[in-house]
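Researcher: Final request for today, and then I'll write up notes for the group meeting. The sequence and the SMILES for glutathione follow.
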Amino acid sequence: MKNHLVIGNKNYSSWSLRPWLLLKVKDIPFTEEKILLYREDTKQEIQKHSPAGLVPFLKNSEVRTWDSLAICEYIAEAYPEKHCWPENLEARALARSISAEMHSGFNQIRDCLPMNCRKNIVFKVESDSLQGEINRINSIWQDCRIHYQKEGAFLFGDFTIADAMYAPVVLRFHCYGIDVGSVAKQYMQSILSLTAIEEWVREGVAEKAVIEQAEI
Ligand SMILES: N[C@@H](CCC(=O)N[C@@H](CS)C(=O)NCC(=O)O)C(=O)O
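Model: Predicted protein-glutathione complex:
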């Protein structure tokens, strides 16, 4: 099956990173096409592929699918041998819950700490609502790691969709110097050490485009 993934700028597009990382880590072949965001023709270019007018978007000879979590769910179903969700029912329910929580929430983190692989600063967190979201993520990572640490270095042991969903947050916390507990820090290191993340960041940093709206 020839998968083709349409993504945005690697430096900025956190939603694009999620399915891209899942495909890479699970070693599923795909071609990629980048559409630069915040340009005059961005919408028009994306709509050539996606009816929703947003990236990421995945297509192959069988399906057209869009929205990061829906794409990841499709990959999980199309490649059951890749175990994109945890095997265990209880772990799977938790992995789905925290993935959905990420997908539908954390607006303060999105607004205050936009993904920007080039950033290397220590952001001073002054708002309680932002700190509250950081604390929630810290406790999600800590609880998962403490529970599943014997099974591997990721949230549920092996890399799953839950890790793909939280990878952009790891990058944000890393680039903005956000302080988390030691267990969460260790988890961040597992994500940051992935060859695929190194590749994404390297290519994102090398991009020429600057999106002023995402520069804080
Ligand atoms: N809920 C969507 C959000 C996708 C999204 O907001 N994508 C942004 C880039 S990160 C986009 O395509 N923006 C283009 C535009 O608004 O013109 C998902 O999970 O994929």
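Model: The mean pLDDT is 97. The radius of gyration is 17 Å.
Researcher: Thanks, that's everything.
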